[in-house]
Every structure is written in C-alpha cells, then in structure tokens.
Amino acid sequence: MAGNKFCLTTPAYYVNDVLHIGHAYCTIAADIIARFRRFAGDDVLFITATDEHGQKIEDAAKSAGIEPIALADRIVAHDKKVWERLNISYDDFIRTTEERHVRTVESVFNALYEKGDIYKGMYEGMYCTPCESFCVESQVKDNKCPDCARELERIKEESYFFKLSKYREKLLKHYEENPDFMKPHSRKAEMINIVEGGLKDLSVSRTAVKWGIPVPFDKKHVIYVWFDALINYISAAGYGNDDKKFSGFWPAELHLIGKEIYKFHVIIWPAMLFAMGLELPRTVFGHGWWTVDGEKMSKSKGNVVDPVKMADDYGVDVFRYFLFREVPFGVDGDFSEKALVVRYNTELANDLGNLLNRTLTMLEKYFEGKVPQPGDSKDEFRDMMEKSGARTVEYYNKYEISSALSEIMKSVGNANRYIESSAPWKLAKENREKLKEVLYDLIEAIRIITLLLAPFMPQTAEKIWEQLGLESKISGMTIRDISWGGLKPGTKVNKGLPLFPKDK
Ligand code: MSP
Q1: CATH number for the domain running over 336-482
Q2: What tens digit of pLDDT does each residue of 374-399 get?
Q3: Ligand 1, atom 29: nearest CA belongs to which residue?
Q4: Scanning 128, 201, 355, 483, which has the fewest C-beta atoms within 10 Å of its C-beta?
Q5: For residue 138, what pLDDT is reported?
Q6: Full-prediction pTM beyond 0.90?
Q7: Rounded alpha-carbon distances, angstroms, from residue 237 to 31, 85, 178, 234
Q8: What CATH architecture does domain 5-287 belong to?
Q9: Ligand 1 atom 22: residue of nearest CA
C-alpha cells in the first residue's frame, strides 16, 4: 500500500551549457533523499527540470548559430545522459518548453491579472542576464551585479508587474509560524531582513526578449523567465493538468536549491503561491557552493569539474559518497581529487571494504561461510548499532544527509573496532559460542549499514547484498528491515571481489 505522498524537486537547470558538479551535487542530494523516502515507504514524486526560456538562452543560441529550441534539445539530451550515468532516480523530467508547462504558466498569468495581482507599468532599472535577475538599484556598485559581480544592462521598457509588495506581512507570518520552511536555519536571517526591509513589485514580463512564453493577452510581452520557471514545480505536480495527482503531491515537501537562488524560492515563489491561493512547500533547503582546489569554478579558468568524468574515473558511488562526506550539506565546500582519493583509500577501501572482507573471510574460515546462530542477549555492540541506526534515520528525516553519512561511517568504525576488541581468531580457539555471537553481530551490522548506505551508494549496496548471500532483492527492502535480527542463521554468504580495489 502506498504511504505518504512525498514530492521533492531540484532546480530547473538552464540549458545554455552542460552540467557540472555544482548541478550534480543538488540533483544527487535530491536522489539520496528520494531513495530514502521510498525506503521509508513514501509514495515519492521526484521532479527535475530544465529552464529553457529567457535572454540567457536566447543569447547562447545566437552565439552557437542555432535556434534556442535546438540548443535546448541538444542540452536536454546530454543532461538526461548525465543523470542516467549518476544513477538519478527521478520520476519526472519537465522542460519549461513543454505544452503542459506552458499552459499552466499562461493560466496562472491570466488568473493573477484578473485578480489584480498582475498589472501593467513601466520598468526602468538594471538587469543581470547571467542571473536573469532585476537588481535593486541601491545595491548596485560600478554597474556590477550584487550577486554575481558581472556587468549589468540598463533597461527601460513597458512591463507587467506582480504585486510582490502586497505579500510582505503574509511572508513574515509564514516564516514565523513555520520554523522549518527555511533550511538550513542559518539562511533565515538574511531572507527575513530582505522582506522586513520592504518588497518592491516585481517586473514579470519583457518586451526586449523574444524567447519565452508570450503574455496570453498581450503578445508583444514574454513572461519573465523566473516567473515561468518557478511554476515548473506545480506544472509537473499536476496543477492544471492532473487534479488528482496535484491534490496528492502538493504541497511539495522539499525544494532543493543552491544558496544563490534561495531568495527566488523563499520570497518570490511563496508570494506567487499565496496569490494563486496554493499551499507553500514545506521546506526550501539551500545548499552551499563548491569551489575547486580553492578557486571559483569557471570556464575561463578551465577548472570546471565534469561529474561524468568523476564517475568514470572513480566510480559513480565513490563520487556520490565523496560529495556528501567531504562537506556538511548546507555549507560551502572545496572539491579536490586529492581529497577524494584519500577518502577512497582510507574510508572506502580500508574501513568499509575491509569490514566486509574480513567478516566474510572469518565466516568462511570458522563456519563454512554460513551465518551462525546469534547470542541470546542484547550485547553492548548491538545496542550501539541500533542507536546509531535510529540516529541515521533521524538525520535523513531532517535532510541532514552528511550527518546521516557520517553516522553510518561511525558504525563502520565501531564494527571494525569490535573485530579488534573481540579478537575472533582467539575466540576460535577459546570460546566457540562467543565466536558465533560476535560473527552474527558483525554480519548483521553490515546488513543494516548496507540498507542505510544504499541511498548514497546504490550500486555498492547491491554488491554487498549479493555477497551477504541474501535471496530477497535490496530494492524490495523497507525501513522495517533495519531492525536487528533480520539475517537468518544458516544463510550462506557469497564472498566476492573487493568492493574498492586499491588502485586509485
Ligand atoms: N534556472 C535557474 C533555476 C530555476 S529553478 C526554478 C538556475 N539554473 S542553473 O542551471 O544556473 O543551476 C543552478 C543550480 O546549480 C543552483 O541550485 C546552484 O546553486 C547550483 N550550482 C551552480 N554552481 C554551483 C556550485 N559551484 N556549487 C554548488 N552548486 C552550484 O539557477
């Protein structure tokens, strides 16, 4: 039976260029959470998207000498391959050029216009094309964008405006009453400050841009690309095209995005939803940014990291593991291949790989590869493992996925220490009963660790599962299976090749 409905989203990625690790980071995080929620029994709708309209894409297509839609088609085909390579289990990939989205945007624009929340005026001010963002004049210095420091354009054109200012109090009240709406909590103060400082109505159409969704009743305008793109979340969830689906999956539980687009998601998007009379997503999580070897990633520096190359060189699971192990989810971090190799050798090959290898070797040596009978009483090790498992689940539930991963690796460390302290090679001579207990504990701990690790490292988890000799597929396991004692005595393990060969 299907459980809770759980909708989560990644940003809609621009199609002016190919994906790099910054994008992969957000989508892998979403994938980890989606996999965990399915494991926890939820009926998940995991949405990813591409943001295909606007000046930035129009300009990129012009430079490439092709039509914007041809550029978008090319990038989308590439993006889909990247997501497949990174093992992303999305349920829906929506393009903002798709009919189902365009219709929704048009109907929202019409409805807000009729309601008086969109009105016609004149926009005069600064515009940043790389950010597709109108800038607040008082924050602009030397004609540079206050967010990305790139050159601004002065524009003066007739425009439709969205009455953002009208929703100031409602937004503040929502922040106050929903402490987990903004996560991590460290991002709250800045946003509250912006809203408290006063909100100006937002220009939501352009006449100078051609590549976009025309305003339905005034075709010389196209709808501002952010107004268009944010709506992808509801068009994919079924708004205006599948009411039953929408009522089940909306509000989304989680929008995952990077910090630089946080304000669009916690100020503008919620105000749009208020205007539409729809509920707000439960949580907007803004993660940090990656630098590479201490420097900002940029094409001109030639240091843009290709996630597919990382997966090819180190294995997709190793790359996924590293991203969430190296840096707490939510803060900025620095990517270095050197650090990745160190973690590969120490934590994956030595700690996790060897734990499995040593345990299976001992089972073969002392019990002909069969899982022995567990002890009668709950020992200290089991108690520690159960508590750690419960903490891991809590972290997953709060989207603190790096903490979940470090808790899992603590369990791996505890299991390795348990081997040292209980010295099975001595027990083999002195105490067979105790030996059975220790080896049952170890192999059962590995089984539970594997289930908890699976959202991060799905392929590795499958490989471990095979070596444990379990008949049931890991994909059919649920959160109930992390309770202690699931492994049946007598199961014949199936020792295989090392998980992480030491050749990196
Ligand atoms: N199209 C908008 C989002 C619209 S959502 C309705 C957009 N697209 S983007 O292609 O630029 O992708 C942005 C996402 O990639 C953001 O979440 C951003 O934080 C993330 N990253 C881009 N560079 C990054 C790093 N160097 N590090 C981590 N994430 C980064 O913005």
Answers
A1: 1.10.730.10
A2: 988 778 999 999 999 999 999 999 99
A3: 22
A4: 483
A5: 77
A6: yes
A7: 17, 25, 22, 5
A8: 3-Layer(aba) Sandwich (3.40)
A9: 22
